[in-house]
């Protein structure tokens, strides 16, 4: 697909990038692209839209765009809080910005926003644009996961998309964000859970699984991981801190991440790094660098597909997500966008661009640090009330990122051989008693039984947290009586 951000090995070589000899060629990814994605063709109009902005003086008779004179919105002003002075500053879209925001735009994203986000990846992850990757904007990171894995999927009836065909194997770190399980399930792929321990992903177990893989069976194509959201199975004598997000857990250590990168090379799979809580970390311990950062020093560069989101720190409703990946993967995702929802909303992109340009990278960092501190305080209140109501009835680690507690119910009486299952208790009994949470089984691709529960601390005021946990205590006590 023609575009302004081609960073193939050839482009890297011409730029003199020191990574040029290690960037994987476009032809390498042929084995990973799904059959349905290979069948997809460009929208001939959308493929030419970027030319309207790239050639000064060009007179375009191309697209059937509605005339901006017919739009009823004639001006837009909003107030933006300065992260440093904390003052509210009025910001108005110019006439040109407003007209642009109300009009169609390229499927990949508006060029200046893409350029700003490429700069953000250098600022946050040390990755420069000539190092074998590209970027596209999406309607939240979940939209891009859908398109990348379905741009993996190969399901013609659903017109999906890029990496997985029916019958392919995907490694899924579990517990996992429940929203991605239906995405992988619908591709028709086989999901294999990868476990964790106190240091994050169980790289040794993964190594054993892959080294002993049956020779007559295709190996996994991808590993899906939320590197700041890995779960530690709790032990009474081994209560460790956790650093992760959704549903919960420890952050995978640097050593584990390097092991996974080595396994990806050895066993030829791609790493889907979903990191929506990267900017919502409030722990004191240094966090390990991302897979996206680490791969630039590996013998091969181009196995990491990274999903980012600003939805948690700017606006959930604006759905601000972006994907950083090898050029060919970005092309496949953009092609899916052309064939499905045409583009992420231009209005959202222009507002995001206005905000981000107004702040710059340093003020954005100041803002996200303040947001993280806000959630740290919410966590502290929630945990204090957890101790008040659930000591002796549940076990948990203290989260240092994200919005959730992941806790293990102690359902069996002393001496009981079974730990129980949180499913019926949370879905039925807790709901009947006026409290809504999520049973841990929904975060497991296998759907196996678990005593774990996920609870969010992001919204509720202290009095409602207090009452919710009091009600949950009643439910757990009743379940213990009945066991």
TrEMBL record:
Gene3D superfamilies: Type I PLP-dependent aspartate aminotransferase-like (Major domain). Its cofactor is pyridoxal 5'-phosphate. InterPro entries: Aminotransferase_I/II_large (IPR004839), Class-I_PLP-dep_aminotransf (IPR050859), PyrdxlP-dep_Trfase (IPR015424), PyrdxlP-dep_Trfase_major (IPR015421). GO terms for molecular function: pyridoxal phosphate binding; transaminase activity. The keyword Mitochondrion does not apply. Residues 103-472 form the Aminotransferase class I/classII large domain. Coiled coil: none annotated. One of its GO terms (biological process) is alpha-amino acid metabolic process. It holds the Pfam family Aminotran_1_2. Keywords: Aminotransferase, Pyridoxal phosphate, Transferase. Belongs to the class-I pyridoxal-phosphate-dependent aminotransferase family. This is Aminotransferase class I/classII large domain-containing protein. It comes from Ganoderma sinense ZZ0214-1.
């Amino acid at each position: 697909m023609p575009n302004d951000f081609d960073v193939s090995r050839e482009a890297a070589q011409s730029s003199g990038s020191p990574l040029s000899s290690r960037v994987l060629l476009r032809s390498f990814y042929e084995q990973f692209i799904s059959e349905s994605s290979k069948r997809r063709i460009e929208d001939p109009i959308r493929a030419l839209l970027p030319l309207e902005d790239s050639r000064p003086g060009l007179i375009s008779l191309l697209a059937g765009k509605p005339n901006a004179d017919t739009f009823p919105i004639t001006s837009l002003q909003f107030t933006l809080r300065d992260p440093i002075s904390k003052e509210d500053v009025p910001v108005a879209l110019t006439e040109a910005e407003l007209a642009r925001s109300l009009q169609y735009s390229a499927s990949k994203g508006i060029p200046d926003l893409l350029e700003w986000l490429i700069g953000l990846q250098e600022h946050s992850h040390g990755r420069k644009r000539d190092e074998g990757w590209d970027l596209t904007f999406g309607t939240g990171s979940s939209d891009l996961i859908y398109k990348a894995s379905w741009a993996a999927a190969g399901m013609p009836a659903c017109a999906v998309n890029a990496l997985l065909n029916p019958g392919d194997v995907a490694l899924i770190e579990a517990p996992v964000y429940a929203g991605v399980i239906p995405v992988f399930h619908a591709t028709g792929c086989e999901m294999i859970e990868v476990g964790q321990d106190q240091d994050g992903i169980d790289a040794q177990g993964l190594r054993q699984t892959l080294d002993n893989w049956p020779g007559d069976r295709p190996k996994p194509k991808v590993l899906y991981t939320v590197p700041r959201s890995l779960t530690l199975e709790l032990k009474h004598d081994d209560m460790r801190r956790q650093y992760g997000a959704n549903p919960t857990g420890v952050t995978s250590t640097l050593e584990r991440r390097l092991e996974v990168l080595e396994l990806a090379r050895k066993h030829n799979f791609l790493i889907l790094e979903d990191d929506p809580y990267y900017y919502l970390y409030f722990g004191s311990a240094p966090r390990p660098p991302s897979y996206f950062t680490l791969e630039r020093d590996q013998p091969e560069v181009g196995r990491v597909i990274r999903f980012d989101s600003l939805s948690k720190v700017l606006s959930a409703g604006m759905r601000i997500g972006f994907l950083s990946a090898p050029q060919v993967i970005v092309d496949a995702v953009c092609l899916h966008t052309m064939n499905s929802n045409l583009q992420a909303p231009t209005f959202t992109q222009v507002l995001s661009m206005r905000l981000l340009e107004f702040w710059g990278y340093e003020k954005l960092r100041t803002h996200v640090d303040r947001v993280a501190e806000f959630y740290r305080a919410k966590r502290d209140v929630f945990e204090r009330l957890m101790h008040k109501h659930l000591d002796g009835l549940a076990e948990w680690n203290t989260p240092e990122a994200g919005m959730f507690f992941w806790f293990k119910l102690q359902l069996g009486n002393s001496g009981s051989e079974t730990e129980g299952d949180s499913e019926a208790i949370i879905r039925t009994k807790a709901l009947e008693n006026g409290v809504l949470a999520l049973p841990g089984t929904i975060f497991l691709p296998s759907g196996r039984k678990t005593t774990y529960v996920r609870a969010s601390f992001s919204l509720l005021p202290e009095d409602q947290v207090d009452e919710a946990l009091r009600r949950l205590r009643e439910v757990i006590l009743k379940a213990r009586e009945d066991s």
